[in-house]
Write a sequence for this structure.
């Protein structure tokens, strides 16, 4: 028996070799491009290999979506340019992607992300362009928000407006948004977009610290510990089925649940708009909230989720009713009575008010929305209260003068018992209780 296995082995080996080389050819064939595309690849492989290498590892390479498929341009395209005998465009916009991904493009286009470039007439932009300067806007605001990409006469892109992968980029072909904001070229990977870092370029900092809130939350801790158990490279990525170790930003805002498909409308599951000075309910808020609760449901019980939303709504109401509404109304009266100019940011009160709602007020609400206690309190309501009591009201007194100040206090502050400690001072009983606490805890009657 033994003697006979030699030739059999050799034949098997030969078959294996042939099969492997075929499989290898199969790989190559699957990555073969159109004739035009091959011309791009041959030259770019030498001139700029990283474009080709990143493309080679993408799903597109496996499906014959090559350089030319994406970059080819009609002569009528304002951003078309001649390039080594081809008419191409550097920008590959959602309109180009929509030929093969209509659902994703439709959802993205109707979402707030696609509207992020329309910030030109906002107060933020006045702050950026006038108070700061356009050079800062070019490398700041528009790299997150997107802005109009301008084209020069020869089809080249104006370097004052390019590079730019801002989320609401306004493209020369009229489409809005940039898909490479989350799927960087040329790997165009969905695994990458499932990671919280994909959102972290924009969703961080003093005015919208979603990334930091996430990192300090239990969910972020779970992610740090269980990242390698998340199966990010799976074709389908359904929470509760394909992974349970942690939710990422995408899990809650975009990815599939057993009952919901992936959405490219990041507003589909949020019930509040926490961006304005005073919070606003989204349209169809209840339905949107139910869609989010369905995500939580994969890992939590219904009463747990109810509790979270109750605490979140309570915090939003506290911020709105106790601080944002009176501050907004008082500032409005000062404007109406000519105590402030309409110019914006030319006086201290505007800066205090801005910090109160745009930074501290948002931090508090985002902290509560996504379970980041430090943002909800220390970087949130603590800062709101500090702004309100130690800066805003004293500055109102200075600007308004004693008579008007007292009128404003009577109208906006005194009716709310939650401000009594400030307008009337702490009661004797409260002070006594506090002293007793410190005595018991530290052996002295004084707060340290
Ligand atoms: C003969 C070589 C060659 C061929 C063929 C070629 N390219 Fe290029 N391409 C280059 C080089 C070199 C650059 C870099 C130019 C530079 O750095 O200014 C470039 C730049 C580009 C750019 C960026 C242009 C810009 O203004 O930023 C794009 C997009 C591009 N090529 C796509 C393609 C596509 C798509 C094809 C095939 C239809 C193609 N290229 C064919 C050599 C080539
Ligand atoms: C799925 C579509 C797609 C395919 C396939 C594709 N590109 Fe691109 N390419 C893009 C997008 C998107 C951008 C970024 C421009 C933007 O933001 O609109 C880009 C940008 C570029 C740039 C300019 C970026 C820079 O850093 O200078 C070059 C050069 C380029 N591509 C070359 C290639 C080459 C070469 C291939 C083939 C190996 C290729 N592309 C395949 C979509 C594609
Ligand atoms: C000519 C058709 C075509 C165009 C144009 C195209 N794609 Fe694709 N794309 C595909 C195909 C085919 C797949 C593989 C889908 C599959 O296997 O289900 C794919 C897959 C993807 C994936 C999933 C990759 C993964 O990790 O599984 C992303 C993300 C993607 N495309 C983004 C884009 C973006 C962004 C653009 C425009 C810049 C674009 N595509 C343009 C055909 C195209
Ligand atoms: C680091 C990225 C980044 C930078 C830089 C940035 N923003 Fe934003 N901006 C965002 C994000 C993210 C949001 C949404 C936050 C949220 O939903 O809580 C936002 C929200 C806004 C809004 C509110 C939009 C609405 O629908 O209510 C305006 C207006 C705005 N930004 C303008 C600007 C201007 C003007 C600048 C520069 C002076 C700027 N932003 C700088 C990322 C950025
Ligand atoms: C805000 C970030 C973000 C932007 C912007 C974005 N995507 Fe995605 N995309 C994702 C995430 C996250 C996934 C993975 C969802 C999942 O399967 O969990 C994804 C998945 C995809 C897929 C795979 C879909 C599937 O069912 O497998 C395609 C195709 C795609 N995106 C195309 C696009 C196109 C085209 C654009 C531009 C119009 C775009 N994306 C813009 C985050 C983004
Ligand atoms: C390139 C910057 C950028 C990236 C990357 C980005 N966003 Fe945004 N996002 C923004 C801006 C800017 C806004 C505010 C748009 C506006 O109000 O006009 C926003 C708004 C949102 C909103 C509020 C939507 C609404 O309808 O009110 C959600 C939720 C959101 N983003 C989630 C995400 C998630 C999740 C990711 C990652 C998968 C992500 N974003 C990636 C810039 C970005
Ligand atoms: C466990 C689920 C979960 C995770 C993980 C999560 N979010 Fe959220 N997010 C929420 C909930 C819940 C809300 C509030 C929904 C509402 O308004 O009803 C929210 C609100 C938001 C908003 C709207 C804020 C506004 O100003 O109106 C943005 C933007 C956002 N999240 C971005 C992110 C980003 C970026 C990440 C990752 C760094 C992330 N989220 C992680 C659940 C999550
Ligand atoms: C992939 C699973 C998963 C998803 C999805 C998920 N969570 Fe969690 N969440 C957890 C786990 C695990 C913990 C940790 C519980 C513990 O401390 O033992 C947690 C903790 C929490 C906590 C407690 C925070 C703390 O500091 O103790 C809250 C509140 C919470 N989640 C709310 C939500 C909400 C609201 C959603 C949906 C918007 C959600 N979670 C979605 C897994 C998930």
């Amino acid at each position: 028996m033994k003697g006979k296995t030699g030739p059999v082995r050799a034949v098997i080996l030969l078959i294996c070799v042939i099969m492997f080389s075929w499989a290898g050819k199969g790989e190559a064939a699957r990555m073969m491009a159109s004739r035009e595309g091959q011309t791009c690849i041959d030259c770019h492989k030498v001139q700029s290999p990283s474009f080709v290498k990143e493309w080679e590892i993408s799903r597109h390479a496996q499906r014959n979506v090559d350089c030319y498929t994406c970059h080819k341009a009609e002569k009528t395209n304002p951003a078309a340019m001649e390039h080594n005998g081809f008419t191409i465009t550097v920008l590959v916009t959602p309109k180009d992607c929509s030929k093969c991904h209509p659902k994703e493009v439709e959802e993205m286009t109707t979402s707030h992300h696609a509207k992020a470039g329309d910030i030109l007439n906002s107060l933020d932009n006045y702050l950026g362009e006038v108070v700061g300067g356009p050079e800062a806007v070019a490398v700041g605001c528009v790299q997150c928000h997107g802005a109009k990409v301008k084209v020069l006469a020869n089809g080249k892109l104006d370097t004052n407006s390019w590079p730019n992968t801002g989320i609401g980029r306004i493209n020369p072909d009229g489409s809005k948004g940039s898909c490479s904001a989350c799927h960087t070229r040329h790997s165009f990977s969905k695994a990458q977009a499932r990671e919280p870092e994909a959102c972290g370029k924009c969703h961080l900092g003093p005015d919208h610290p979603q990334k930091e809130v996430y990192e300090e939350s239990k969910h972020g801790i779970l992610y740090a510990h269980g990242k390698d158990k998340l199966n990010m490279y799976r074709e389908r990525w359904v929470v509760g089925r394909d992974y349970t170790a942690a939710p990422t930003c995408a899990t809650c805002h975009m990815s599939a649940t057993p009952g919901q498909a992936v959405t490219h409308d990041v507003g589909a599951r949020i019930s509040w708009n926490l961006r304005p000075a005073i919070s606003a309910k989204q349209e169809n808020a209840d339905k949107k909230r139910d869609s989010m609760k369905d995500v939580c449901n994969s890992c939590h019980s219904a009463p747990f989720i109810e509790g979270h939303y109750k605490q979140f709504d309570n915090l939003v109401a506290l911020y709105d009713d106790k601080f944002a509404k009176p501050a907004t109304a008082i500032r409005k009266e000062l404007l109406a009575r000519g105590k402030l100019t309409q110019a914006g940011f030319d006086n201290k009160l505007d800066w205090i008010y801005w910090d109160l709602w745009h930074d501290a007020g948002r931090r508090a609400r985002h902290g509560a929305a996504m379970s980041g206690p430090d943002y909800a309190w220390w970087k949130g309501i603590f800062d709101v209260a500090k702004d309100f009591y130690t800066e805003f009201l004293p500055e109102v007194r200075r600007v308004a003068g004693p008579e008007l100040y007292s009128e404003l206090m009577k109208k906006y502050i005194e009716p709310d018992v939650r401000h009594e400690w400030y307008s009337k001072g702490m009661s004797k009983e409260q002070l006594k209780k506090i002293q007793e606490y410190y005595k018991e805890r530290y052996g002295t009657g004084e707060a340290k």
